[in-house]
Specification:
single chain; 164 residues; mainly alpha; 55% helix
Length: 164
């Protein structure tokens, strides 16, 4: 009689297709740059003129956190970070679309007195990221496409044939 060796499905995985190679590197660099830019902008706005548009400037800080987490999630290995990347980038796209639309149709809701994407009260996601050449609008779409093509893969467990 031969002992059977079985391996639990969660223990058998193939190496994850790297999200940190090729075009993925460029995507991560752009996310990192936006993380730095959004952080700098929001910190300055909150320290210098928070009273002018507190909702908008808080949203700039939220955008900064989103970009930081997305950058980390895109570089970190594993299925858990892959899910974090999806959630973060989906939230980013929703934020850009909601804040962009509100900044155009109802800027007062955000506490904005004008919709100048390069103005004093502009946020990262105002006017769909126009102040950043629409990169905040395009980036999550590219990020989602990249994630869809580079998902972690799991191999079905191998069960050896029973030996008589």
């Amino acid at each position: 009689m031969h002992p059977q060796n079985t391996i639990a499905p969660e223990q058998v995985t193939t190496p994850m297709t790297s999200r940190v190679s090729g075009v993925g590197r460029l995507l991560i660099v752009v996310y990192g740059i936006l993380a730095l830019a959004a952080t700098g902008r929001s910190v300055f706005q909150i320290i210098d003129r928070f009273g002018e548009a507190p909702v908008a400037f808080t949203l700039s800080a939220v955008a900064a956190v989103v970009y930081i987490v997305a950058t980390i999630a895109l570089t970190a290995p594993g299925a858990g970070w892959y899910r974090v990347a999806w959630v973060t980038i989906s939230f980013e796209l929703a934020g850009v679309l909601i804040v962009g639309t509100l900044s155009l149709l109802a800027p007062a809701v955000l506490g904005l007195t004008n919709i100048d994407p390069f103005g004093r009260q502009a946020t990262v996601w105002s006017v769909y990221g126009m102040g950043y050449l629409l990169v905040p609008l395009v980036l999550p779409v590219l990020g989602m496409l990249w994630l869809a093509r580079h998902r972690p893969s799991t191999v079905a467990p191998h069960t050896p044939a029973a030996h008589a």
